[in-house]
Amino acid sequence: MALRNVIGIDHAVVMVQDLDKAAENYRQLGFTVSPRGTHSAHMGTGNYTIMFDPDYMELLGVLAATEHNAPARAFLDKHGEGIERIAFTAVDSAAGAEEIRARGLTPIGPTDFERPVTLPDGTVSAAKFRTFMWPTAEAPGGVRIFACQHKTRETVWIPELMKHANRAKRIKQTLIATPEPAQEAAHLGRLIDREPNAESDGAVTVPSGGDRADFVYLTLEQLGKRYPGVPLAGLSERGGAALVLVSGDLAATEKALGSAAVRSGSAVCVPPAKANGTLLAFVTG
User: Fold this and answer.
1) What's 136's domain CATH number?
2) What Gene3D superfamilies does the annotation carry (predicted)?
């Protein structure tokens, strides 16, 4: 029975050591980066967002140690920068938390928080969220999952922030490295009631729901074969490895990426060492 209050991937969270430096790095890669946001005090975090349609990327940094961000700090200490968790869109976080509780899992939350947002006309509003997390131990491939209910979509999906010089349009796939792709994909499939699909190269895909991005579990060796010539230094054998982004114009993408660009087959890539621990692969369609 599919989850009724949770739909596909909403955003990917890239944990970074220095929030402002990371934002400047992504600007240099041709992304339009939102103004910096500071979350409610109990969260202890700040962020920059990179908005697509219907999803986005979040650069997240710890500003003050709190109980809530302890897992994120542990991730940075152990793995360094990179994809630390993936959010689904929650239709109703309270109801979604009860859905997974009924399946024998103890949700973390729901948690309400917000951050101030300066709108393009200079006025200040707020982005408000209600999230819940699957238990911290339930992290297929080492990537935590949670669901995010947007109470104020109009202060997050701002049209001026959704146009990027590198022509990024949306997330197509989230690639997660693991020595056991089938096992980790089956784990996620149980958590979100989705059926894994084996691919010809041994990777395993799990649809996230609706028209949203897929999860792909694969070994580092398989990842290297998908993107030959792209240095994978900085990636661990288990954990969030890459985001495949749809580009509206690969020639424009390559120009915007400049010296960071690496052509690999039909994709234009940025190695993880140049994108805060995350391989970025731009593709058409």
Assistant:
1) 3.10.180.10
2) 2,3-Dihydroxybiphenyl 1,2-Dioxygenase, domain 1
| pLDDT value of position 263 | 98
Q: How far apart are CA 177 and CA 236, in angstroms?
A: 8
Give residue 53's identity as a one-letter amino acid code: D
d(CA 27, CA 36): 13
Residues 6+ apart with CB under 8 A from 217: 140, 141, 176, 178, 181, 182, 184, 185, 188, 203, 204, 205, 206
| Contact yes or no for 120/160 (Cβ under 8 A) | yes
CA-based end-to-end distance of the chain:
31
The predicted pLDDT at position 118 comes to 87
In this structure, the answer to whether residues 174 and 117 fall within a common structural domain is no
Strand partners, 176: 217, 240
pLDDT in tens, 40-78: 777 889 999 999 999 999 999 998 999 888 988 999 999
CB atoms within 10 A of CB 91: 14
Alpha carbon distance 204, 88 (integer Å): 19
Contact residues for 237 (Cβ-Cβ < 8 A; gap 6+): 177, 178, 179, 219, 220
Q: Does the residue 1 lie in any domain?
A: no
User: CA triplet 254, 256, 262: central angle to 5 degrees?
Assistant: 35
* Residues 174-181, mean pLDDT to the nearest whole number: 98
Mean pLDDT of the chain: 95
Domain boundary among 137, 162, 187: 162
Q: Give the domain range for residue 29.
A: 6-162
In tens, the pLDDT along 253-285 reads: 999 999 999 999 999 999 999 999 999 999 998
Residue pair 7/77 in contact by the 8 Å Cβ criterion? no
Mean pLDDT on 124-132? 94
